[in-house]
């Protein structure tokens, strides 16, 4: 395993037990170090093992059958520690603290069932677990009739490159994420804020220029909204710290 390149898998399996052998071959072929898997449909009574990996999972079992469920597979050679007792309201999640290139990062595999109400407090709790977080999973966000499997990051100073692969047997396409944790791979952009910022100006700029649509019906609309949001924040950052010229 390359110490500076960790490969992470984000995949909704729609049932993991019957796909174990196929997944094992995929993990080996793509050198996957960490796999975040949702809709595992596992139960505590059904044992499943992945040689070379440690399996961390949270199951949802109803009276009739196993449903939902989340898991994280981590190579045994990676230093890791499961974070217990997340105590979330509706979000299904499992979290593991790992070490990437001498930096501790919390990996979260999460599933938001479409039949359960979304609670923002669940996401606030997840994002407050650690300073550096990578959250991957299926949050059932639908845009243009397509469900997007999401990667959320917090304070990760590494390059993360995502690649969707037409492999594995599920109604969701697996996404391979390459995390380059070498110190040379990350270069911060030049700061938009020059000098002491005036946060009142920043706030006024955001309130004046940000246009929030009532709906985002398509992927193209989502991309346009993201570009608009980025531009408004950048302009506000520049405006709030623009040097003031004094007449002499």
From TrEMBL:
<dbReference type="InterPro" id="IPR005135">
    <property type="entry name" value="Endo/exonuclease/phosphatase"/>
</dbReference>
<dbReference type="Pfam" id="PF03372">
    <property type="entry name" value="Exo_endo_phos"/>
</dbReference>
<keyword id="KW-0695">RNA-directed DNA polymerase</keyword>
<dbReference type="InterPro" id="IPR036691">
    <property type="entry name" value="Endo/exonu/phosph_ase_sf"/>
</dbReference>
<protein>
    <submittedName>
        <fullName>Putative RNA-directed DNA polymerase</fullName>
    </submittedName>
</protein>
<keyword id="KW-0548">Nucleotidyltransferase</keyword>
<feature type="domain" description="Endonuclease/exonuclease/phosphatase">
    <location>
        <begin position="10"/>
        <end position="146"/>
    </location>
</feature>
<keyword id="KW-0808">Transferase</keyword>
<dbReference type="GO" id="GO:0003964">
    <property type="term" value="F:RNA-directed DNA polymerase activity"/>
</dbReference>
